[in-house]
Write a structure and sequence with these properties.
Layout lengths: L2 H23 L3 H11 L5 H19 L5 H16 L1 H5 L5 H24 L4 H39 L1
Helix pairs in contact: 1-4, 1-7, 2-3, 6-7
Length: 163
């Protein structure tokens, strides 16, 4: 295994774990928000926003628990995307397309957060925070993409030397 492949594996393990944990965090939303309401004082802008979200989720869960099923599907989407990245973990060159899709998805987080957030009355600072998830996701994927390019170049050179 080359140095590039080892680096790719490490970054993809990080990315897979982050996707999985992000999905896992979508399931106990009310519990997490309850915890956050105690962390941020209600006399701050962030505290008021978190308290408002918590109230909305708590009331919705009490009166319409089936709405939370959407969070379950959100978690499932994160889990399945995490599984998808096992392909490039095993064979980066052959599954480079998964990295390319991941890069595109991370970029698309930015306009989606701004557009959907606007229509859902999400404060701009919160939308910016959501955009950071896409931007942070770009880092390991760009590193992997560049390492795959290096592996492809080495492979091409080795094939040329054999002929």
């Amino acid at each position: 295994m080359t140095k590039e492949h080892r680096i790719i594996k490490r970054w993809l393990l990080f990315f897979i774990a982050a996707l999985f944990l992000s999905g896992l965090s979508a399931i106990p939303t009310e519990t997490e928000l309850d915890f956050l309401t105690r962390l941020f004082p209600p006399n701050t802008e962030t505290g008021r926003w978190i308290d408002k979200i918590y109230s909305g989720v708590a009331v919705t869960n009490a009166d319409y628990p089936f709405i939370a099923y959407g969070y379950d599907w959100l978690a499932f989407a994160h889990f399945t995307l995490a599984v998808l990245f096992i392909g490039p973990y095993m064979d980066p060159i052959r599954n480079k397309w998964v990295i390319e899709c991941g890069l595109l998805f991370c970029l698309l987080v930015i306009p989606f957060a701004w557009i959907a957030g606007y229509f859902r009355s999400i404060p701009p600072a919160w939308r910016l925070l959501d955009c950071l998830f896409g931007i942070i996701g770009l880092v390991p994927l760009l590193i992997c993409y560049r390492k795959i390019a290096t592996m492809e170049k080495i492979k091409t050179q080795n094939l040329a030397n054999e002929n």
